[in-house]
Amino acid sequence: MSCEIDPRLCPIGVFDSGVGGLSVLGEAVRQLPHEDFIYFGDTYNAPYGTKAPEQVRELAFGIVESFCARRVKAVVIACNTATAEAAKELRAHYSFPIIGMEPALKPASELEGPGLRLVLATPGTLSSEKYASLYARFGQNAVSLPCPGLMDFVESGDRGSPALRDYLEHLLQPYLHENVTAVVLGCTHYPFIRPLIASFFPESTRILDGNAGTVRQLRRVLRQKDLLKTEGTGTVTLETSGNDQTLTLMKAMFEEAKEMIS
Length: 262
Ligand code: DGL
Description:
Low-confidence stretches: none
Distance between the termini: 34 Å
Number of domains: 2
Strand content: 15-25%
Number of strands: 9
Order of helices and strands: EHEHEHEHEHHEHHEHEHEH
Radius of gyration: 18 Å
Bound molecules: D-glutamic acid
Mean pLDDT: 97
Number of helices: 11
């Protein structure tokens, strides 16, 4: 179903397994201030990154179908895992543009410097076919580090508890005496703990995420299809399959995300 009035005035649906996609939404409202966004965080079903691909696909279809009923003009899958496991199928099924994400391995490979590129992402993203093909093209010097459970810290509002520090210490320890050119935040939850992750490395190590690139792609596609809303103040509606407490946390994290620079 598409918007029958003026499609440019229809909202954009954005979703993630939880609060992570708010880091993308923060960038989206900066780059596209006139647009109306509906954000859905599927907290009840989180995490996606350790679920079977079919299960993630089914959840993603359910969310996009409900966006469709609300006449969105485009959808952003603000989740690397759901993109890896469902974007192709969603695009084959729906006629509106569906923008996905992938770990920023290509930009990392283009950086100067002979050092390692560490890719932090969910087990689901890193074991997907989509990632395998990305890695085959841009994975020179790249080490893929699955991070099961890391999103849970972010979901709970943690930015640096001893348990979170221990998790990262354990994960990153083998690389702390190596030359690391870049760390790729391949899950939309991780930009919320970017300062903590960065604190393990020298200042010269670049910490990359795919948020700005994803929103640039959204803007390109909307412009191409004459779907850009170019005036009026945009609105943001935050929704969750979680409880009231989740919604309160989401609101606070959205404010935080608007200030984050990727
Ligand atoms: N934020 C998600 C991603 O970008 C997934 C986290 C999860 O649900 O495991 O991959």
